[in-house]
Design brief:
The protein is mainly alpha-helical. It is built from 14 helices and 6 strands. The radius of gyration is 27 Å and the shape is globular.
């Protein structure tokens, strides 16, 4: 009970700090609007005392969900205040009296920050002046610095269109998880500047680079940078070979131990298996005949009924592409098209125990990953679960199927339902959930 009391006290202190921030800078981006500089200095001292009070408490006291959300929001607000202060500091020029060439150099030196972080703070503060909705949400703490940076980059696509749609884009930032938010923003950028989107994708492809060189002790060191399509091709094959090696390691350990092994009892680590999988990929490439049939990558074009009149162009893993990006693969790849509609779907028997064939593929493409609210596991590592359990008469249909990772599927089988509850949806959801 004392822990509950402590949590209640610290939550009140957190809200006190949040309210105190409003009192210090009520204007959101207008530094020292209603107070003198000396008053603000005093308030900073008071704020520091409040932070000291929070820091002096047992972390367990503010480890409840409400306090975590409140602390994150306070951090966002402080970053907003800092960004505006850095922009004002840069404009004021006081940094030059110390012989610094730029405000970034001064901040980097005096605050012991990487220059990239100091530049990001300045860039953020300057951009907020021309993005009132972004500035307001940042000041309120409902979006963080990462969302602000993404929105600021999108603003460069078209300032006029960004000003028109800024409120909507900020709403996306507030309501969506980060990955769906960046997908929505990528589509907005494509619609705002289609030619620029194509050019941007071509520039990304031009940045592809791989190097592998021997070090002085004979080890080979390398780095790999691939465009979205090439990256998926290589990553999927590497993952497939790594899984083969994992299965072999598991079988070997099980045979030697006479029981199911633990992960730490396998003779190779995951990093070692990835390295061996890369070697196996090269070995198989060397073994294959030069005139042999090349495997064709499969491109999945996702189209659902509500968005047939809109624009959607992304890989099955959610990576948004410009339409022209796929053109380079037309002569060496297979393409599949899946149309989600209320009827005329390919289904296996609704009495089947397992999701297979076209039904399974449709669910995989619809959900693209674990549908649990707190999970972002890729569909490649997930299972298809009956929303209404098969044992309770649930049919094996698209409407009654969903993607869950192994952990959340087992959790559901232990009686813990996902946040959406046990009822099946009325129909298939659009891609990009």
């Amino acid at each position: 009970s004392s822990g509950v009391v402590q949590r209640s006290l610290i939550f009140s202190k957190s809200h006190l700090i949040l309210s105190f921030l409003v009192f210090i800078w009520p204007g959101c981006g207008h530094f020292c609007v209603t107070t003198t500089c000396s008053d603000c200095a005093m308030k900073l001292d008071d704020l520091s005392d409040l932070v000291d009070a929070v820091a002096g408490c047992d972390p367990f006291s503010y480890s409840d969900p409400d306090s975590i959300i409140c602390l994150q929001r306070i951090q966002n607000r402080l970053e907003s205040i800092l960004s505006n202060a850095v922009a004002a500091f840069d404009a004021g020029g006081e940094w030059a009296s110390d012989g610094a060439k730029t405000s970034v150099a001064w901040i980097s030196t005096r605050c012991h920050l990487p220059r990239a972080e100091a530049r990001a703070q300045l860039r953020r503060g300057r951009a907020l002046a021309g993005a009132p909705h972004v500035a307001q949400a940042f000041c309120e703490g409902t979006i963080g610095a990462t969302q602000v940076d993404v929105l600021v980059r999108a603003q460069k696509t078209s300032e006029a269109l960004f000003a028109r749609d800024e409120a909507t884009l900020v709403t996306y930032a507030k309501e969506l998880k980060f990955t769906p938010f960046t997908q929505a923003l990528a589509y907005w950028e494509q619609m705002a500047d289609p030619n620029g989107a194509e050019q941007s994708d071509m520039e990304r492809a031009a940045r592809r680079d791989v190097y592998l060189f021997p070090s002085l002790d004979g080890m080979h060191l390398g780095k790999m940078t691939l465009d979205p399509i090439s990256g998926v091709i290589v990553a999927d094959e590497l993952r497939r070979l790594e899984q083969e090696l994992f299965d072999a390691d598991w079988a070997k350990a099980k045979e030697g131990l006479g029981r199911e092994p633990r992960i730490d009892e396998l003779w190779r680590t995951p990093a070692q298996r990835r390295a061996d999988a890369l070697v196996e990929m090269a070995t198989r490439s060397r073994t294959a005949p030069a005139d042999g049939r090349r495997p064709e990558p499969l491109f999945t074009i996702l189209v659902d009924y509500p968005t047939l009149h809109g624009r959607i162009c992304e890989l099955a893993n959610g990576q948004v592409l410009s339409p022209g990006t796929a053109l380079t693969q037309l002569d060496g790849a297979s393409f599949e098209r899946v149309v989600f509609a209320p009827s005329k779907r390919a289904e296996c028997s609704v009495l089947s125990r397992f999701f297979t064939g076209a039904t399974r593929r449709a669910i995989e493409l619809r959900d693209r990953g674990c549908t649990h609210e707190y999970c972002e596991q890729s569909v490649d590592d997930c299972e298809i679960d009956h929303i209404v359990p098969y044992s309770q008469g649930g049919p094996t249909t698209q409407e009654n199927g969903r993607v869950l990772c192994g952990f959340h599927n087992r959790l559901r089988n232990q009686g813990v339902e996902p946040p959406d509850g046990p009822e099946p949806p009325d129909g298939p959801e659009p891609p990009g959930r």
